[in-house]
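pipeline/complex-builder :: batch 7 item 3
reading input block
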Amino acid sequence: MKQFDNKGRLFLLFLFLLPGIFYAQQTITGTVNSADGDVVPFANVIEEGTSNGTTTDIEGNFSITVDNLPVTLAFSSLGYETFTQEVGNTNPVQVTLVESTEALEEVVVTGLATSIKRSNAANAVSSVSSEELVGTTGQSTVDGALYGKVAGVNITSTSGAPGGGFALRLRGISSINGNNQPLIIVDGVYINNREVPSGLRFASGANSANEENSGNRLADLDPNDIENIEILKGSSAAAIYGQRGNAGVIIITTKRGKRGRTKVNFAQDVGVQSISNRLGMRPWTAAIVEEVFGPDERDKFLATIAERGELYDFEDIIYGNDGLITETRLSANGGNEKTQFYVGGSFRDEEGIIKNTGFERLSLRANIEHKISETFSLTSTTNYVESSSSRSFTGNENDGGLSYGYTLAFTRPWNNLFPDENGNYPNNPNYSGNPIFVRDQAKNEDSNNRIIQGLSLNTNILDTDVNRLRFNISGGLDYLANETYVYVPETHQAQLGTENPGFIAVGKNNFTQVNSQAALVWDHTTLEGDLDLTTQAGITYLYQDANTVLSRGSGLLAGQTNVQNSSTQAISQFLSEEEDFGYFGQVEGNYRDQFIATVGYRLDKSTRNGDPNELYGFPKASLAVNLANMDFWGLEALNQLKLRAAYGETGNPAGFGSTFTSYTSTVVADGPVGQTLAGQKGDPNIEPETAKEFEVGFDVGALNNRIRLEATYYNKTVDDLILTRQLPSSSGFTTETTNLADLKNYGIELALSADVIRADRFRWNTRLQFYQNRSEITRLDVPAFAQPGAGFGTGLGTIYIEEGQPVTQLVGNIDGELRQVGNVEPDFQMAWNNNITLFGQFDLSFLWQWKEGQENLNLSEYLTDLGQTTPDLNTPEGQARLDTPANAERFVEDASYIRLREAALYYRLPTKAVKTAFGSVVESIKIGVSGRNLITITDYSSYDPEVSVNGGAGLSNGIEVTPFPTARQMYFHLNVNF
Amino acid sequence: MKNIYKNIIRCSFLALLAISVIGCTFDEVIDPNGPSVDGVEANATIGQLNELVIGVESSFRFGHGTETTASGTMARELYLFNADPRNTGDLLGKNGIGLDNNSFYSTAQWNGSYRCIKNARLLIGAVNNTDAVNETEANGYIGFAKTIIAYELIQMLKSYDRARIDIDDPENLGPILEFGPAMDAIRQMLNEANQNLGNAGSEFVFGLSEGFEGFDTPDTFSSFNRGVAALAAVYDNDGQGALNALNNSFFDLNGDLDVGPKHVFGLGGNDIINQVFRVASTEEVPNNGDQIIVHNSFIEDAEEGDERVAEKTQPRPDPSTQDGLTGTHESTLYESVLSPIDIIRNEELILVYAEASILQNNLEDAETALNIIRNAAGLPDYSGAITSEALTTEMLRQRRYSLWSENHRMFDLRRYGLSNTLPIDREGDQIFNTLPVPLSENAND
């Protein structure tokens, strides 16, 4: 925050100078606007070569008096590039400032209550601005919007359903059993990013809750509300977050009001999404049908061809919907010296590529900052979200007849599955479900009501030239009321095959998270202003509880959709409550922006650890050396050369319940209740996993930061890794969760960006990122084992935990021998992002993303092979595959891809035209077209190489069983500023 | 200047101190979702012990479905046509693939049976560590628990050909024993259990489900224990031992074949259903989903007029084909998801008697017993040779039809060395007769 202070002082200085320059003779007036058309209030206007200057008012107008013309005026404002213009007469001057793309003035978070200039940071902290996040194309979720924008992050899509389903991994896997999703903090509030299961597995026969393809609840956050995202990727940057920081920390700041005239923004997006990649149908001929299925099926095939001239293209019937996307946003922001506000609302309605699927989100936000006095200031951020989705049925199942991909694998395209005139759906003769019936009649829905409230009170205790002391209390609440609803009618084919046809599951789930923090921050300047010391100390507290209740009924009254109208009912409930408490302290020293050193320490305890009152310590230390700021530096072209090194430790407590060995209730034939051992053996002495990371790197800025290079190497070890390992089940226990292993992740991250062209009406800036991660299990106290819930056993392939091997290896039983068949970790990833301004008014941007060398286990193909419907089965290769044993080696595939992730073209209407048409009511108008997932180049044979059948938790990644296919989205955008 | 520092430090210290008070000690964490094992280890009440008994009986059913369909598939009694292709792939050795020791078919039974065994062990431990029951009552619990353990261990030997007997310390499990030594230990355990039951008075102080109706006192439960002992004896090639045990069991040559303790089921949330039941097809509503298809050889090899075929199977409206396998009939062995499954019934004991008689060379006794079975199935008396070999063939044949799809055939063929007589349905298929011990069993090694 220091940077702002300096600017503030500068600004005051100018105000004081103002009265002294009234003797001048020529007065120049004008306005300063931003490239978006916004006015820029409080911008500095300086007559070059003099100390004469002024600032713009709240409307962006300025008036400066100079001795004689012509003069050169320099316009500058925080966040914009400085612009100079020669003025030869007193006609009003119209100046447009371009937002700074330089990271130079940006600040990054380094402590729980402080931040630092990016140019002084000792870590490679990635930032994503609002413009980068949502400026190109429409985004439905924050995690999905991060693809290709952050070096060091691996994003996996766990479902293509509207409303998403994404897993973020920062610098590789940091936990085998526990949480791998980063901690997400929105305006100081620790938010809930769970996948809430719906219980559809009880109808579909999926093996576990993580095969239900639920979305993760980060989807509730409107990406358009975000001003900035900072990503602390490793332990060295996240150490001050202690035992919640192991998987990295994502710090999201939402939009704030700006002093000045109230600005209103209206934006409307209209788009359409459709399946991005069709696999097509096996080219059937009568002869092939007879060869594969026999003469009866041949007759059916011929009858269908005779009747309608073609087969039923079920891929098109099920996945071929063109889903309409609309999003409307309205926001206003403004304020005065004391109070600034941002209020906004948005409504997104997304229809999926499968009929009757969709996602809706209504988000309302009010962010208010108020300065009570010189001593106290208050910030409140409030976000209410109502979201709902309808995700239908995809992914793994067993005999549910529900999952589309599963059903289609066995569905033969000469059977008419459409309902007759009475609305009766025919049975699927080759599988236990009619996909058209499921699409039209079965439901898998969720709805969420959520409030996220942050509050922060800052107290300036002391403010002198050399000492500033402030006390900050902040905290927040995230309350989520989630409901799930699964309905499978009693007339569904697979249900007819059960004793009690019809299934309904109603989930009522409540999650509360509360966190608070108190910190004292002391800024001290010494050595005659050469050394700034920032010291902070404080405490943090986190509370989370969950209460999930699922009521299930089967045997439904005809047409009834209430769980009460069922013949048999079952209720399950899961409760959890956890608390964390921590102390932190940190000292940061900055010697003339040349040497910047930090040391810090955090102490944490958690009720999830074996001993809830044992404190665990997490130290950190870092050093950045800005060579280019040294007095001896003479190389003008290289304006920045920073060497940096950082070390830090973080933790991750065991999952809730790991300490318990418990019984669970059971009943025999409606008799009295009894207790049977639950499968888990608890560990009452479990300790948190601890990650230690060392990061080194350098940042180079050349030609006044026109070319910038950031390079980072990291080595992160995780000790005492908590594993759920299988126990010899003859012990009566099947699993135990305990500290059993060590893991190492290491990798490099490179980011090169350049302002290639900087002309007036033509601008091109480009950024290229390259990153890779490698992992290795360096200690394993138990024999190698197949990770439960991450694969399908060694028979079909599984993630396999083995010393000396990557934690992401895929292993299968090949001819009686366990062998590594692949690795779901990419060899490397690259992203290439471009923003081009053409003819002053056109903005073209595109983002290419490349994942190389990841291997997937494509078990969808296993199913289509069995059903004889794989498109390539008429080829010799396809036939040869049918004769190979059904083991992991057969199904592993290269999942590398290159994708045009985002592209857009916008047109900013000329200010003059806007003014002519709308007068002063409308300030600016922008229209554009964009697309997402436009081009994909891959050898992967299924819908999308981005896939995970096991949801976003744990190690899941790269294992495919009939997912919801990925969509391509195209948008039209309208953006109006008032 | 000095004062400022002092103030800053004092101020910081006080503020932190003030807030630190909030961060008081966390309470001990208690599982809000279930009772803890420690809670019954010592000083359990009768109520708690009886809840553990229900747990034992409940978990006695665990893993049964997969156990039956997997061994039935491997023994070409049936096919399971459902969503998991390994049921028609791995289990039949398709294209030369081997059985995997980390797949559901190899782990389900092992996990389920040992969960039950552990529950029974915890019950014994709780009984021995409480003053809530007297010695007579304690004998009842222990006799019950040990009999169940022994029965489960026999099931392990049938499927895996080996079993781990000593499981008391989860950190230091005993060795996995081969069939012979394991069977010795099991038979000894059954005898101990029978002694416990003999010293258990006239009533149990715990209740059992309706499945144990007629077997729910120490005396009648002992007749079940002896039935299991007879079973163990013939599997151990001890004909005389089997005959002795049968004498004290509920075996009755002229009695109702269906008598015997049963697994019973319920639809409630914490209950389980009969997992070998599948809804039967009708002409209007064929069940094309999850279905147990009868291996055609069971129909083709049946003696004309064998009523058991029509009782246990029915023709499908259309023959069913999956993964290159075809069957004309489907299972109707059970009527509903709530149909009880026999643990051991008189019919099986009569067949055990026949087998024991052959082993003891009492061939006429064997013939008598087999005729009882034949006549009950609507077949005339046995007319083949009265030799040990011929009668063994007949006995195995009657076992095949009387105990179809009840997890006997694979083991029967294995113990008589006849597995390789099974038909091969697809080129490249193989015959397996033993499940691999689950991979995780090495986890403590």
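note: Residues 186-977 of chain A form a domain with the Maltoporin; Chain A fold (CATH 2.40.170.20).
queue -> next item
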